[in-house]
């Protein structure tokens, strides 16, 4: 009897020691699209992973899989639902029909040059509208965030108003960006980011439509010297978790993780984007680049050109019974 009691006590002690050392910690496999050297990998996701371990006292830990190692961006949501990854990062724009209301700040001239403002606004919209929350009913939402708004960048052309933009051939990616550029009177070309540098170098396009972040690392900044600042469009991102994995976490630890996610993580991601943007703009100014910020009166002229895109978005979603106008009005009020 004493021998059995000693064995039980020994096993219990081993379990306590293993839990204390983290050997029995619940591991969350986090799939992100960024490489290990990307600023958000180091400044946001690595920080969040560290915070998770700290606030759960080692009971939950996060292993980051960079560069979409577990699932490609377009498959991340389903991969998270099925458990291929425990936590996944992707963009609602990859499946607009699945996350229609989440794209409200992706609409033309809705977002600002402040990623922190964009990110916190999007999160607050998510908290306010059950219809937006329903878009992520298959998973546990951790947080939403956004990048700074896209601007127009040119090799030789100076664009200070709509008239100077007319006929310009611009790399615009796809989707809303192409519709917007066409509405402005430009000639948009659907070119993926990895091919923009070559297109600029060969003169296939005379400008591009991007945020500042990729210009320097992809060497586009070596060719671009004039920038039109109008806060034209931005991208939303979501970080979600597999529901079954979430349910394995104790209520106490769930509460602790929620506290460092949500608004706190949205703000952290936005601030990290903004920090990088500020650094890149300072570097571009130092090398002699010129920046043309649209005046309020001029910006209004550009906004008139894209009202139809917003109206179509509202009309399409209202036909499906979604509160698109209410979400758009609330987003506009919060951004102002």
What does this 3D model show about the protein?
The chain is of the alpha/beta class and 336 residues long. It has 2 domains: 21-148 and 235-277, Bacterial extracellular solute-binding protein, family 7 (D-Maltodextrin-Binding Protein, domain 2); 151-233 and 288-335, D-Maltodextrin-Binding Protein, domain 2, CATH 3.40.190.170. The chain is built from 14 helices and 11 strands. Helix 2 runs antiparallel to helix 10 (251-260), helix 2 packs antiparallel against helix 11 (262-286) and helix 4 runs antiparallel to helix 11 (262-286). The longest helix is centred in the last third of the chain and has 25 residues, at 262-286. The chain is globular, with a radius of gyration of 23 Å. The termini are far apart.
Q: Which features would summarize this protein structure in a list?
A:
alpha/beta, D-Maltodextrin-Binding Protein, domain 2, 11 strands, 336 residues
